[in-house]
Amino acid sequence: SAVISQKPSRDICQRGTSLTIQCQVDSQVTMMFWYRQQPGQSLTLIATANQGSEATYESGFVIDKFPISRPNLTFSTLTVSNMSPEDSSIYLCSVEEQYNEQFFGPGTRLTVL
Amino acid sequence: DAKTTQPNSMESNEEEPVHLPCNHSTISGTDYIHWYRQLPSQGPEYVIHGLTSNVNNRMASLAIAEDRKSSTLILHRATLRDAAVYYCIQSGAGFQKLVFGTGTRLLVSP
Lengths: 113, 110
Prior knowledge:
The complex is a heterodimer of chains A (113) and B (110).
Chain A lengths: L3 E4 L2 E4 L5 E7 L5 E7 L5 E8 L5 E2 L10 E5 L2 E6 L8 E10 L2 E4 L3 E5 L1
Parallel strand pairs in A: 2-11
Antiparallel strand pairs in A: 1-3, 3-8, 4-5, 4-9, 5-6, 7-8, 9-10, 9-11
Chain B lengths: L8 E5 L4 E6 L8 E7 L6 E6 L4 E2 L4 E4 L5 E6 L8 E8 L12 E6 L1
Parallel strand pairs in B: 1-9
Antiparallel strand pairs in B: 2-7, 3-4, 3-8, 5-6, 6-7, 8-9
């Protein structure tokens, strides 16, 4: 199974600033996904990131707010821009290495003051 | 929106079997049923998936109704480590996005 790491594991940021979250996978994968989990809530998909193409964003999420990079098959970044307290969440990346099985990273816990 | 319906919470005693139900009445002929669970302070982890037939793996069994409108995740002997939120997800075949509902919070008592 894929091993996924995320950096940072947690951060506390000031409103109006931006934070870039890194997701590193130990194997080459075609599709990577970025999710948000707000406090006490379930996971919500932000976008799907394929290497070599623009990310596909879900309804309610826009590229200006959550720009994503996917420079190669083992790495992706998600930036949370111009943050507000409402962006305080856990951000998780996932990959589908094996058909119909997604593996999730440990998450990045973001607090915006 | 999530397409599945699950009870908010269930309780079990350690070493007893647990049956977690899920309704997916709008499932299409090519949709799979996936189960993931999320332990406290961790990302979700894959449990099992199936299409039509019942499925078994080292973690659990998945029993799918004949009409495919419901399924049951079976943990044969619950342990304290099985306390988690269990998500039942209806999704198309491979490399598809997962739409998480609210899941079932399983509490396991010693």
